[in-house]
Amino acid sequence: MHDVTRRIATIGVAAMLASGLAGGALAQDAALYEAAKKEGEVNWYTGLITNQIVRPIVAAFEAKYPGVKVRVSGGLQNDLVLKVLAEAKAGAVQADLIDGNAIVAPLKNAGVIQPYKSAAAAKLPADYKDADGLWAGLLLYFLVPAVNTENVKEADQPKTLSDLLDPKWKGKLAWTGEMQPGGPPGFIGAILTSMGEKEGMDYLKKLATQQIRTVPSNPRVVLDQVIAGQYPMALVTYNHHSVISAAKGAPTKWLPVNPAVGSISTLVLLAKSPHPNAGKLLYEFLMSPDGGKVIQEAEYIPANPEVPAKTATLKPEVGNFKAVMITPEMAEKSLDSWIKVYNELFK
Question: Which residue among 107, 123, 171, 344 is the one 20 to 30 A from 45 at the CA level?
Fold first, then answer.
């Protein structure tokens, strides 16, 4: 009888401790929300596509946290980084947080990142967050070739990197002109990482003879040009963009040619921002399962392991393809050398 009583007491204490911990977390969240409401708004700089993902995120956040308005400044990633750096130099940072897959190094070097270890990001794999809280992974990108299915028959669709060297593709391939991990430098990095320096350079030299057309815009625009029939195939496109467009009836399909370029869209809080608490609140929301489900529904790939991709085959482990993940650390170390290869071979 005494043993039963002791067990009941133990269970009761454990339940109270768990309740206390949960209550503490809720209290912390409530305190952050109250502080954010006093600030009234949060400024988010993002290169994400407004209609596809930004508006759904903003609507979900503002519904969950009434009284905190999200102000969005969109644009090309590099332009937004330059904007932040100019604001910081003038001593008047306007953004509270910014996302992108090539933002960490320039912002870190300029000393404008506010370290923040998000509670919601605690479950991210170690490779998807910075140990010191400088950044955390928001989205995963996998960049692959994509074709216009009306112009390229299934039998002619490349299955391997070697297939891209077929003379029939000479002058008919396109890719973005963005010099970042989600562009030609990332592709070059994935080739050199997976093949090794000598074999990789040999392959890239052969690929350069295919006279790839460089489009001075982002990968989404390149895919749109493929869909419009300007090119039969593009290299280095986001695989989820093909899924989104195909669902709307566009003649496009992404190809699981190994290796895909894996890239992490990182989220960064900015130092000396105008709304630090609201910035943290939006950061926590974006990293949380609630934010991840909005990302999932938009057919993007959440970095949060608790939220799978809506189309499971977009991820390598389900889609049966391999990817070389270009982490922020890899980009900081090697991006300039990959750009140099691009300039020597493809420009």
Answer: 123
Residue 316, phi-psi category: left (phi > 0), alpha (psi -120 to 50), beta (remainder)? alpha
Q: Are 139 and 302 in contact (CB under 8 A)?
A: yes
Give CATH 3.40.190.10 domain extents, the chain: 2-138+267-302, 141-263+312-345
CA 227 to chain centre: 23
Residues 6+ positions from 148 with CB-CB distance below 8 Å: 226, 227, 229, 231, 232, 233, 251, 252
Q: Name the superfamily (CATH) of residues 141-263+312-345.
A: Periplasmic binding protein-like II (3.40.190.10)
Q: What is the pLDDT of residues 93-115, one digit of tens each?
A: 999 999 999 999 999 999 999 99
Q: What is the pLDDT of residue 257?
A: 97
Count helices and strands in the chain by DSSP H and E runs: 12, 11
